[in-house]
Amino acid sequence: MNEIYISSRPCLVICIVLIALLVPICDAKKCAFEAIFNFGDSNSDTGGFWAAFPAERPPYGMTYFKRPSGRATDGRVIIDFLAQGLGQPFVSPYLQSIGSDYRHGANFATLASTVRLPNTSLFVTGVSPFSLAIQLNQMKQFKVRVDELHSSGKTNLPPPEIFGKSLYTFYIGQNDFTGNLAYIGISGVKQYLPQVVSQIASTIKEIYALGGRTFLVLNLAPIGCYPAFLVELPHGNSDIDSFGCMISYNNAVVEYNDMLKEAMEQTRKNIPNANVIYVDIHTVMLELFQHPTAHGLKYGTKACCGEGGGAYNFNPKVFCGNSKIINGQTLNATACSDPYNYVSWDGIHATEAANKLVAYAILNGSYSHPAFSLYKYCDIQPFT
Ligand SMILES: *[C@@H]1O[C@H](CO)[C@@H](O)[C@H](O)[C@H]1NC(C)=O
Ligand SMILES: *[C@@H]1O[C@H](CO)[C@@H](O)[C@H](O)[C@H]1NC(C)=O
Ligand SMILES: *[C@@H]1O[C@H](CO)[C@@H](O)[C@H](O)[C@H]1NC(C)=O
């Protein structure tokens, strides 16, 4: 049950034996996974959306890259930390034609992506055209091109054997969940959540057919604690729990996550010799929102970058990095000076500080079902 199914294992075992014999032949920084292929939305986009539609502004990127880097946060996203932990470069966005290097994988995630096909008549808020089915097509095209070009030698692509030695990560579904929530409510959204879950499962099966063997599926974070949704979604005072989060929306997320976990258990039975790992980042994020000070942070449900101050520092009319004249006054949504003290960067997306804590939890496997510690398969590199 708990074994790992990758073809490079014999090499790894030999390497470990050689290290044990103190023969300095193998590189000590070994990892059973040589690449990461990621599917997702803004929570894991490393520049795809903004490569397609250039317009990102400061203060995005202020903490780590010191400039807008195409990520919807002040610094690194979760998969950046996973890549660093595995000793690999940041994963290049599939849509980024300049400066990309795909030898260690590709990132298909784009801001505002959904699992389901975007229905423009229903989605009043903006959505990305790059929904999960498109991201899967891009993955298939990526493999076709790798297979075609590998003999030519001069590529920034991985070898064709890479697909069995890669980590496939999924962090998507949040926009399906929240995109229509203000218009059709929790009961409306629940109608199609089974469809979201089954599409994630079928995508995993398709990638398995391409050779993929290890899948990490991140569940949804407690959006009822997000400053933006606390401001935007209808709720009464009695719906707020002792941590300042909305009970009804958080309960609905838990229900979705249970369904996702169940679907992953089923998927595991359907595809032999594969690791299908459900990663409960929800528990990690909820803990950060509820007890920020226990983890070196200060603020849970208040955004770092926003307008208006107050409990949430979020104004739906002026997003982070923007200014708007409202009633003759120029309102500016600017960043706090200490993003490392916040869970929420801009009301929706987590800060680099929170992403790092979630990444540690993913790497050490304590929130994975079945248990799955990446320390067992890779010489995990420290990151700061
Ligand atoms: C999109 O949403 C509208 C409004 O609910 C619905 O009438 C229509 O059938 C949907 N279209 C698709 C392609 O799902
Ligand atoms: C927003 O920024 C503009 C330009 O820097 C400034 O004139 C204005 O006073 C600021 N608005 C507020 C509410 O601080
Ligand atoms: C894994 O991470 C959790 C949360 O950060 C921590 O409590 C736990 O001690 C870690 N376990 C290991 C083996 O590093």
TrEMBL record:
Annotated transmembrane regions: none
Signal peptide stretch: 1-28
Keyword Signal in record: yes
Keywords, comma-separated and alphabetical: Glycoprotein, Hydrolase, Signal
Entry's Gene Ontology molecular function annotations: hydrolase activity
Gene3D superfamilies xref list: SGNH hydrolase (3.40.50.1110)
InterPro entries on file: GDSL, SGNH_hydro_sf, SGNH_plant_lipase-like
Homology family: Belongs to the 'GDSL' lipolytic enzyme family.
Protein name, entry field: GDSL esterase/lipase
Organism in which the protein naturally occurs: Forsythia ovata
